[in-house]
Amino acid sequence: MIEEAKVKQVLKKVAEEFAFMFADDQENPSDELVCDGLIRARMKFSGDIKGEIIMVAPVELCRNMVSNVLGIEETEEQTNVDPKEALAEFLNIYCGNLLTEVGGEDAVFDLCPPEAEEIPLENLGNLVDEEEYLSILLDEIPIFVKVIIE
Amino acid sequence: MGINILVVDDSKIIRGVITKTLNLSGVDIGNIYEANNGKEALEVLKNNWVDLILTDINMPEMNGVELIEEINKDDILKTIPIAIISTEGSQTRVEELKSKGVKAYLRKPFTPESLKKMIIDLLNLKEGERND
Fold first, then answer.
1. What would the pLDDT profile of B62-104 be if each residue is shown by its tens digit?
2. Most exposed: A83, A86, B16, B69, by fewest CB within 10 Å?
3. Are B41 and B5 in contact (CB under 8 A)?
4. In the CATH hierarchy, which fold is given to the domain comprising A4-149?
5. Which of B12, B16, B108 sits opposite A96 (nearest CB)?
6. Domain spans, chain A
7. Where are the alpha helices (DSSP H) in chain A?
8. Residue range B16-36, pLDDT digits in tens
9. Do A108 and B92 touch (CB under 8 A)?
10. What is the ipTM, given to two decimal places?
11. Residue A19: which of A88, A111, A109, A80 has the closest Cα?
């Protein structure tokens, strides 16, 4: 079990350093959930710690990541990058940083490439009710993360 | 004549960031080749000469470690400096990669300044060889 504070601390750090997004805690995630679609990314890891991390974020947040990371406006150029790829890479970086934070710099992990897919909006209700998911706001849009340790 | 660089990463967004940073770095860049994984990288290397390889570790089909092992089998290719740009932060892994000939390691998320510094250091560039 990884403590909640650490999960959120690393999430905020990666959001700010990779996606240039301001991260903030939120009282009630369901209050913020107005979106036109969701993307779920998941990534398994093994080694000194074995498990999986799952992230769910609105498509809008993933599109904003593409713009921020590549330093572009919402133009034709941006549409060449699938927003699923942005969340998958965000998860990839998050996973590596979280495992190093938890296991230390001598720990060795094997990371599986992340996979991302669009999921139906109706899954959102179940998601916010699940206690295992932690959430924070990135530029005022919620992102959900679940860390499973086997 | 500019420096030819091969960027190997399964993330299009990371390849985009690296390419953009290289083009703005002030280093005299020739061609930037992109590959989605180690297998594609070897195909690029069959037909093109590069001065530097920047590769991720964690990729499908052929990962970065397997790519380095393949490159090391070739007497000419193994002279090309290789730098890793990866999310993994294990010092044990870094040491293992250096023993395979990797010259530098940059951890994601990285800043444009840190990438630029790594390239300049790796290629031993002097002022006259840079554009800035």
1. 999 999 999 999 999 999 999 999 998 788 888 999 999 999 9
2. B69
3. no
4. Chemotaxis protein chec (3.40.1550)
5. B108
6. 4-149
7. 4-18, 59-70, 76-79, 83-103, 123-129
8. 999 988 888 888 899 999 999
9. yes
10. 0.84
11. A88
